[in-house]
Amino acid sequence: MKKLIIINGPNLNLLGKREPQIYGSLTFNEFFETITSKYPSISMEHFQSNIEGEIIDKLHEVGFTYDGIILNAAAYTHTSVGIGDAVAAIETPVIEVHISNTYKREDFRHQSFVAAHAKGVIVGFGLQSYELAIQSFIPF
């Protein structure tokens, strides 16, 4: 059984409340229940932190034993060399995801310190971005 983890960064604990016109009205826990039931053959868990160091620690913890990491580092994507370095340092493949299309937003959101070290990047498909990332770990 494949083992995946979704790691979410700052403010994603407010999904369902925060700017629903951009992020939708579902909480992440509601969405997570849906995808775990849709993919019962995959062991999935999720982790969220508003603290950069905790995200780095979690990447280090799972980055050598899991089959895949789906990372939405949120605003840290554009500011954290440390998270980018942590992704580069681990062996587990990472898919960078974003709910919104970061290229349709402020210019500073066009830069990613994660992308150069990720297996791929998925942006702009709402919460479906996570599901597309999950599917990338499923062999055809």
Structural class: alpha/beta
N to C succession of SSEs: EHHEHEHEEH
- C-alpha-based Rg, rounded: 14 Å
Order of adjacent strands in the largest pleated sheet: 2-1-3-4-5
Shape, per Cα inertia axes: globular
- Low-confidence regions: none
The main sheet comes to:
5 strands, parallel
Tell me what portion of residues adopts beta-strand conformation: 15-25%
Q: What is the CATH fold-level name?
A: Rossmann fold
**Average pLDDT figure:** 92
Total count of domains: 1
Overall number of strands: 5
Distance between the terminal alpha carbons, to the nearest Å?
Answer: 15 Å
GO molecular function: 3-dehydroquinate dehydratase activity
GO biological process, one term: amino acid biosynthetic process
Pathway: Metabolic intermediate biosynthesis; chorismate biosynthesis; chorismate from D-erythrose 4-phosphate and phosphoenolpyruvate: step 3/7
Protein name: 3-dehydroquinate dehydratase
